[in-house]
Write a structure and sequence with these properties.
Layout (H helix, E strand, L loop, with lengths): L7 H12 L6 H5 L2 H8 L3 H8 L8 E5 L7 H4 L5 E6 L2 H13 L5 E5 L12 E6 L8 H11 E10 L7 H7 L10 H9 L5 E7 L9 H12 L4 H13 L2 H5 L3 E9 L3
Parallel strand pairs: 1-2, 1-4, 2-3, 4-5
Antiparallel strand pairs: 5-7, 6-7
Helix pairs in contact: 1-9
Length: 263
């Protein structure tokens, strides 16, 4: 068998099924919109993502899975049209509020999911999908992004398949299967005739700045799902004896994948 015979889109879907990961609902993200909006523009992740973008010749940007406008608003001052797309209405509302606070009158939003009809989604010079590509059908999602971009596409996808350090999973008493890694995306793009650039963003995990035990436990439950009483007790016992570095766990690694559209 050669690599040309492998259907990486199907392998991705099979891997996602094995992971049995429950996709967060729009209402779950709605509850986090205010907190995420407050942190978005000052995060190291945002800074490092934007530093890798080339806006030369670009006037418009489509941010898919935009959340509160984390990436889009960071570059809005250099563009004439910015469009945020998300399936959480509260996230879109937070993006509009942030845009108004910064005096951006050229920011628009679309309430859509990856799986919805995108026929009315405008093509833009730049298409972005930041931490928003763990979808049911990644091959279809990549094709959508590529179609909606005139010049360039930028996205990030998890490296290693975990959102929380396996050592912390072990402390809880769980073994969570990995989710599909970024390498599927690279191979799907290769099949599409696209040869992307690949870089990595490495940052502290979202557990590192937990304010106290209750905040820490909430963050672990967000990643792993609701904890039972026994699991909470196990985590608390481990938390009390763990060092700050152990509590934080391994850094989060994101593959930064980008490509240029043909002239």
């Amino acid at each position: 068998m050669t690599i040309e015979a492998i259907d990486f889109g199907r392998l991705y879907r099979d891997h996602l099924a094995i992971a049995a990961r429950t996709r967060k609902t729009a209402s779950a993200w709605d509850t986090r919109a205010a907190g995420m909006a407050a942190k978005a523009l000052r995060s190291h992740y945002t800074r490092d993502f934007v530093a890798r973008m080339d806006l030369t010749g670009a006037e418009s940007l489509l941010d898919v899975g935009c959340g509160p406008g984390t990436i889009a608003l960071a570059v809005a001052g250099r563009l004439k049209r910015v469009l945020g797309l998300d399936y959480s209405q509260a996230m879109l509302d937070a993006m509009q509020a942030q845009a108004a606070a910064q005096g951006f009158g050229h920011v628009e939003t679309l309430h859509r999911a990856w799986e919805d009809d995108w026929s009315d989604v405008p093509r833009c010079d730049i298409a972005v999908a930041s931490r928003a590509t763990l979808v049911d059908d990644i091959a279809a999602a990549l094709a959508q992004l590529n179609t909606k971009a005139r010049l360039r596409v930028y996205l990030t996808h998890p490296v290693g398949g975990h959102f929380i350090d396996p050592a912390i999973q072990y402390a809880v008493g769980r073994s969570v299967p990995t989710v599909p890694d970024y390498i599927y995306l690279v191979n799907i793009l290769h099949r599409m005739g696209i040869h992307p650039r690949l870089d990595y963003l490495v940052h502290e995990s979202r557990l590192a700045d937990a304010q106290d035990w209750n905040d820490y436990a909430r963050r672990v439950a967000w990643s792993l799902g609701e904890l039972s009483g026994d699991e909470t007790a196990r985590l608390r016992a481990w938390y009390e004896r763990a060092t700050p570095a152990q509590r934080a766990g391994e850094p989060m690694r994101w593959a930064f994948i980008s490509w240029e559209k043909p002239c």
